[in-house]
UniProtKB/TrEMBL annotation:
Pfam families: N_methyl (PF07963). This is Prepilin-type N-terminal cleavage/methylation domain-containing protein. SUPFAM superfamilies: Pili subunits. PROSITE patterns: PROKAR_NTER_METHYL.
Amino acid sequence: MARANRGFTLLELLVVLSIVALATVGVSFAIRDSGATELQREGERLAVLLETARAQSRASGTAVRWRATEQGFVFEGLPHLKLPERWLLNGTRTNGPAQLWLGPEPIISAQQVWLVNESYPDRTIRIGTDGVRAFTAEAMQ
């Protein structure tokens, strides 16, 4: 006796839906908001540069100041260490105080600076320290 073809079983439908859900999750992770990612990367880069200058300031006993400029930024007080002075992402600038003191004391005052970009006006990255811990970059919404 031959069975009539009646369609898909519930198990087959669940397997297909699971595969589609996994594929959707994979695609959503692959297609990230490049603006958020690029500006976050810029903030993390600045945090690393600030920590590098802070360590050099403590090692040399020289006062170091970071300040934003029209073209990017500059580290003042580090004659022997050449650090980058330009943003990687065009249109990046600071919002708020545009200078930070990085030493030579091991404990500095709590400081922060905000990065914004004209291409992503709804994004802000805060780079800051409480004076004891390292500079960190975090997205502000």
